Every structure is written in C-alpha cells, then in structure tokens.
C-alpha cells in the first residue's frame, strides 16, 4: 500500500477539499474526462467499439435483493439485536442473519437491498435496520420478511437538478425505536430522521440548528457548553451522528463525531447541545438506569455520566484501540468491543473494565449477551463469533 | 501390403526403379548415408536442453490471451517461491532475520528475476496500513531501525513484537509468512519469456542459482524450500540425465532380444545400428528445426529407436526367410528343409521388394498418427509431434533403404546351424498358434467379441473417471519423495495461501477505480461471490482494500467500511495504492481479483472457473472472447479527449485468468477438448490407411476395433494408477495407438495373402501366425523393453509413461492376436464353413 503516510487531524470538510484538489490534479495529468462532470452510470458501453456492450446492466446494489451466501456469517456484520426469541445480525451487502439458538444462523432471503446495513433496533417483533445509501428496512415478524421504508443513494450530479452534495446518500449509522411507532435514525453529516408511524413516513430534522446549548448544570464549570460562536462553526461542520441511546427514564442522547453530543429529555422534541471533555469521536452510546449513559469511541476512550451529560467521568480502559460497539448488562454492567478483537467487560456499575479478546483478532462492531450473560455473541469484520469471558 | 506376392514375382515399375536406384549403387547409397550421418552428428552435438514455460501453455486459449496481455503489468504465473523455515519453529530471532534479509538481496541477483516483483517481509512493496487516532499509519513490515545484518545490531523483543504485529496488519500471514510464524517466504517472478527483446530464459541456470542459494543458507538452524516452474525444470532436467543410462540399457536389452530371435550377432547388431542411425538423424533434425531437447520430450528418441527396431525386425524376418528357404516360411518343416536359400544380395533385394510398400504404409500410418497430435495448440506437444513424425519418416529411410543395403553385404556364418534354429523356432509355438487359430471359429469368435464388448464397456465407464490435471501437491512429473515435492508439501502446509493463485483481470476505462463506482462495486461483489466458492480460501482485490481505507478516513469506524459512491471520496479511498501493490495497473484500467485456492485439483479449478463465468455472464461483466476492453475504452477515452468531449463508461470486463491456476485451467480445458478429438482423428487416420492398403472397410474395422478397446483399457489403467490426463500424458495413448496398430497390419497382411490364395479363414490365420507370430511377439517385446526401462526413472512422469506404453504395446499385441481373427470371422467371412 503506497503513499498512505501518517496524516494529520482532518475533518471531512478538509478531506473533501483535499480530494477535490487531488482529483483536479489527476484529471490534468491523465487528460481524461473530469470525474465530477462525468456522465451518469447508464452510459456503460454505449459507445463501445470493438468490445461488445454487456447484455445485462449493472445491478444497482441499493435496489437489488441481497444474495444468499454460504459464508455470510464470516462477512462484515455490524450490529446485533434480539427480537422475539431470536438474535438478528445485520451487515455488509444487505446481509441479515437470524438465529433462534444463538449458534446456528440462517440468512434471511429476499432482503430488498444490498446496501451495507450498519445498525438494527427492535421493539417486540418489530425490527428496523438502517444502513448506507440512506436505507431503512423494516420487519414486523422478527426479521423474517423485510420492506424498504426509505432509500436515498448518492446520485451523480445532473441526475437531479441540485449540485453535488455529499450529504445526499449519507449513510445512516444508528437506529432507535421508543415504541412500535416512534423512532429515530441518525447518520452522517448530522442526519436525523424521525417517524411517528412505525416508519411508514420518515421526516428529516435539522436538530443541530434547532438545538439550544445546554444550560450549565448546577455546579458545572460551563466549560463543557458552547459559546454562540463555537456553535456556529460546529453547525457548519455537520458532525456525523454515530449513535443514539435512551436511558430508562426516557431521556435520549446522541453521540457523534469529534466529541459532539446532543440530548433530549422530551422524547426527541427538543434537543440540547453538549460537549465531551475530549475532542475525539464517540462511536457508540448505551443508556442505563435513570440518567446514566456510557459513550465510547476513538482510541479506547469511554465516558460515563449519571446526569445525562452534565458531568462526565472517563472510564479507565487501558487500551488505545477504538471502541466500536457495546451492550448493557445487568446492574450497570457493560460490555464493549473494538478493534483487534478487543472485548471490555464490567459485571456491575462499580467495577473496573477488564480486557479480553477473541481469536482470530478482527475489528468488532457489536456484542450481545447470551445464556443469561454467561457468554456473548460478537460481530465484526470476520462475522459472528462466540465470546466466553474467563 | 496389397500385391506383395505379385511384387516379388512381377515387380511394378516403381519397385524396379527403386530397386535399381538403391541396389545398383550400393556403395553410393552407403556413402551418402555416411555423409548425412556425419553431418547429423555435428548438428546433434549442438543440441541443448531447452525448456520453456510458455511451451507448456496453450497460448491461443482465452485465458492465456489474458495472461499474455497482462504478464508485464501483473506478472504471470512463472513464480518462484523460496521458503526459509526456522528449525526451532520461531522466525523471530536475529539469525533468521539476517538470513531472510540477505536472501531477499540474493534473490535479486538471480538471472531474469523481475526485481520489482520480489516480495518478502524485507521488500518495500510489502506494507501495512493501520488506522490511528488522527488518520493512518502505514509502513514497511520491517521497521527502518531494524537492521539485523548491521554491525553491532542487537534485536530486541519489542522489535520482534512490532514486526509480528506489522505482519498481521499487512495481512500476509499464510502467504509471505508461515501460519505458525515458523518461517517466511521470498516470492520472485521471472521476466516474461519472448516478446520484445526475445527473452530466452535459461531455466537450468536459474535452477542452479536457486540451488546455490539453498546451499548457502541451509544450516542447522534454518531449512530452505524452493518451488516454482524454474526449479521444477531444473530438477526434471537433472532427473532426465538418468535417461542416458536407460538408453544404453535399452540398447543392450534390445540387442539381446534380437540375438535370441535371430541367433545372429550380425543381424542383431545391424538392426540396432540402423535404429541408432535413425535416432541420431532425428536429433540432428531437431537442431535443424531449431528445437532443443525438452526434458518433457526425452521419450521421443526411445520411441523412434523402438519403432526402428520393430520395423527392422520385419526386414530381418524376410531376409532370413529368403536366405534360409528362398521365400516365405510357409509349409511344413519337412517341406521347408527341402527348400534352398539364396545369396545375401538377392535375399536383401527380395526382402526390400516385399517390404517396400507394406513397410512404408505402416510407417506412414505411424507418421499420420503422430501428426494428429499437432492439433493440440501447445508448443511442447507440437515439438513432440514434429519430432516423432520426422523420426518415423527417417525410419523409412534407415529401415527400408540402409538396412537392406547393409544386409546385402552380410555374410552369415554357421548358416546351417541358424537354419536349424529357425526351423525349431517355427514349430515351437505350433500348439499356441493352433489354439489361437481356434478363436477364428464362429462360436469362439462370437464369445470373444462379446467378452471384448463387455470389457470395453466397463473400461469405458471406469476410464471416464480419468482425472484431468494433477491431484497431488507439487508436480506429478517428479516422484512424491523428490525434494521438490517434499518442499511443495511443506510450503502448502505452512503457507496455505501462497501456492495456488487464480487471478481474474477486471478491465475498465482509465481511472475506473476513482471514477466508476459500478466497476468497483461489481469487482467487490465478484470478489465476495468467489470467496464463497468452495476451494477459494482468500480473495484480494482493490475494492476490498479501498473499503478498509475508507473506514480509515472515517477514524477506523467499521460502519464506514464500504465503497463510497461519489468519485471524490472514492478517489480518496483508492489513490493511495501504487502499482507495486499488484492491485492495479498505472491508470487503474486493469485490476486483478486475486484468488488463493486451497489446491489445484481439476475439480476445484472447474468449480471456481465455472463460478467466474456464471457471475460475469449474469452481471454483464464480460465482453466475450478475447476482447481487451481496457484497450478499447482507453482508445475511446483518448479520442473523446481529443475532440474535447467527456468520456465515461462503467463497463467492466472480467477476464480469466492468470496465476498458476489460470494456466492450469487453460491447459486442462485444452486437454479435455483435445483428448477425444485426437483419438477420433487417430482412429480415422488408421482406418483410412488400412482402407487404402486393404481396399475393404470391414477389414479396416477389424484392425481399428481392437485398438479402441485397448485405448479404453489404457484410460482405465490411468485411473487405476492415479495418473492424470495432462499435457505430458495426453500423447501416450496416441503413441500407443500409432505403434500398436502395426501388429494387426502385419498379421492381417499375411492372412489376406493366404485368403486370396484360397485358404479358409482359420487356416489363413494359422498360416499368418506361423510365419509372423514370432516376429510379432518379438516386436512387441522389443518395443516394450524399450519403454519399460523408464519405470525405474527418477522422474515419475517418465515412469508413468513407461508403464503406460509398455501396457499399450503388450496389450495391443494380445488384442491383435485374439480379437482380430474373431472380428474377421464375423465381419469378413460370416458364412464360410469350417
């Protein structure tokens, strides 16, 4: 792998700018057609001379059915959830696999998309899965049959009147349903979708713009809140919303890119901006009893709050591996997973996190307790594995 | 053979002319032969061993066109793998790393190695990428500050830990590093053969250099294991040297057999001498044709020797008949003892006159038989066919011209003693002959035909299971206990993914990896489809790496491990890859999908290739045939740019295939396709020659049908012995048929003479057996001895071939003796009363 040297801190903005520069350079070098102005995909082979045009058109993945593959349980799987008596895992290429006994898995047929599914959420037998290309799928029978509720793939400029907008086709990164009707999906570039009819219709909200900065908590120093000026910059940068969680008292918390946080105490009607005492991104959030939340993410950083984000306490993880997924255990316990097969476990609220790992090591994105918490299922780049803590 | 009797009594104009030309100027003829022989000696002395990778490949095959199109960019299949194993099972020691570093340097000095494509943990083209808090870190597997060969350098445990972690991040475990970290490999590739500059690789030299590297680094702590085409050729060439010994042994055994048959040192020596002259001429002709001696082609001289001896035997048989009894050895012992012989010159003339036509026909039939092999578009087979055809053509000259001329000078001593020996020989087998003659009676004949049909049926069923290609690890050419094959087994055990590679090349427009999401997505999905095919252990391709990079740009979040759709982000994910990664060409208009297979069994290859074809057809990812979509799209893009237009195409063309398995797939394909066609051509040629000489299609059928039976038995034997059908073995059956047909031709020619003289079938057959039976038996024995010696060869493929050919020669003889009369009964004389 070539020139990938160490790069400095880069925001998406800067990356896109850099890439645009690079692309114009590349175009100049190659004197080929400018990529950005290229014609839509449909012209495949239209002017092919000696080479015959293919008889079959390229199957657009977002609208194509997922394919049943024997090794699906070894493919990239990104989230795990329980619905009914069943465990459901979702992942790359529209893969949805289900298991009743947590050890034998069956890939669900006729999943109506091949987009990578990043997260799944269930209320009883009702299940929603979200993913890339703005896809939202729903099932009402614990994952047996799925319908598309929303899709929004990136379109080449010119396909619609609007200018090229990276937001278009932004991937959804997490989904949460409060009940069978009311749910949220969050994603890249501060994408926030809400439904109140079980997903029949999804509406987009600019909650970042709506949000008021949180009033400094009693006794809080105020340094974790924003100034108006800071907020303005932050709004523009549209941080990714990586995760959304609910505590037992119904409060909501969204964790995102570069320490950005939002909270709502009224089922998502109003949102407040918060800030972590750390600039790095948080990839996950888990809600517990009362107003306790744990967020975790980049370079092994994890924080816990008992007051929905007014005060944060950093958890000792003793790792620099990024934490990518987690699940709530009884008594305030938590299981977190991350890069290199890392599994962090604490059995109750007071205990420290203890590290374990699966072998062969691979990045993990989700974990789910089985057998009454005695063992776990983990999902990640190498598919599903069983983890037995020592 | 038509009119042989007539020819003796009343020679045709052609016979008279030929006879006068040759026997009228015997000294001139001998002088000419001597002259040509000296010249051929000189040419033959210049013969060099000449092995080539591309000679073994059907270059016109679809897959091999791909291979030729991209061998410069992605390398071909001509790889050399050198594994260094730590004997204590742990590669993380300073001496091991010293060896590894120095060996990587040494491999660069091997002739014709493509330096840019050498890979080991010490080469800069093997890198890892990892995601860190603020982006990526990437680097060489071996850190800059790790210099095991530097003076005073002491490796630390931390450094080894870093290296191990880097190896895992670089995803080379099982490929460049042993699964259990007990060793590591250096991969090298030889520059493409031929093409511009006409690179001619000296494989033996490369093999010797590899062996030198092995000698240099193999010691108490490390062992060195080398596989690859170059090493294989070297080992085979070394093994092939033993052939020279076999050749002398074969000559000795043949001479003894001939002596036993003829009871004359002179006759035996003359026959062997003429056969040797034929071989010498053939070797000279090889050089004149611009060929070398290919280690895979070592058997041809043996074959020519055997053929020359067997036809020489017929000449001697006739010569003796004339010199002892003044004609054909028909009639009772008493009758024969009464007859008087003629002088040597007349005997030689008469033998020449009688055998000129039938001998030529049989040899020309052989020529045609070998020439049919030419339909296989593989250079090495082509060379073999040409060599054999030329050799057999030369045999016509040596056996039908040189031998009778030399015989005419021959004065046999103890003539009367030899005459008595011959008389005893003639009656010795009478009981067997009369038993065999019974086979031509209607009822036994019917039973024999039924038995034949049954055997044929079962042999065909069984023979159908004949395996295409190789089943074993390593190569079938060498014995399993050969160092090469032991190395191959070890390497495939320790480095599961390094050995068998099949690369599909995805062709698209220039810059497709940054501008065409459909192309990248199709490649990615294709890679995943292939990963799910049984036998595919790992797949590597640019989109898979790009997905990891895309996640990397998003702080390593696994949920971003997907291909971006918009060109700007896609560019970001792919532009970091350079051509030395082997994942793309310079403008990413061609990108390989590399599949690492668990083995190279034909069933595995078939399954994987079928899956590739299925995918590309169902997904519009194939332009058909050998179309080079990369070229046509590049041209169109250039044309559009010239006109100031923009050009964009999402067309993708998945082309099979390079890598060693790609080559095997093409060879297997060709072998399968050609196997049946070649046999039918062979049968057709033999049938036609028989039809021409006997003017009776049923008679021709009587000769061809036993051949068909024996051929099926040959296939069944291959199954039984686990010999796969591949380039080297494909020709064996053809050679067996080409030579095996001689017996039936000689027997039938005699039968026909008797039948035309009015004898009933059974009687005619008995007469034929009595006069030619022994000659046939000895011929088969001579041929078989010539090839049976190979069974003891160091090279397994020679041993296999020896066994197969011995079988074909001997069984063809028995089939001719048993089935020919039975078939004649029911096809030629069904209503004759006995």
From TrEMBL, chain A:
It comes from the Bacteria. GO terms for cellular component: photosystem II. GO terms for biological process: photosynthesis. Residues 172-210, 222-325 form the Photosynthesis system II assembly factor Ycf48/Hcf136-like domain. InterPro entries: PSII_CF48-like_dom (IPR028203), Sialidase_sf (IPR036278), WD40/YVTN_repeat-like_dom_sf (IPR015943). It holds the Pfam family PSII_BNR. Keywords: Photosynthesis, Photosystem II, Signal. Residues 1-28 form the signal peptide. This is Photosystem II stability/assembly factor-like uncharacterized protein. It comes from Tahibacter aquaticus.
From TrEMBL, chain B:
It is a multi-pass membrane protein. This is SSD domain-containing protein. Keywords: Cell membrane, Membrane, Transmembrane, Transmembrane helix. One of its GO terms (cellular component) is plasma membrane. The keyword Transmembrane applies. Residues 243-409 form the SSD domain. The chain crosses the membrane at residues 27-45, 242-261, 267-289, 355-378, 384-410, 439-459, 677-694, 701-723, 729-749, 769-792, 804-828. The lineage of its organism: Bacteria, Pseudomonadati, Pseudomonadota, Gammaproteobacteria, Lysobacterales. It comes from Tahibacter aquaticus. It is found in: Cell membrane. InterPro entries: MMPL_dom, Mycobact_MmpL, SSD.
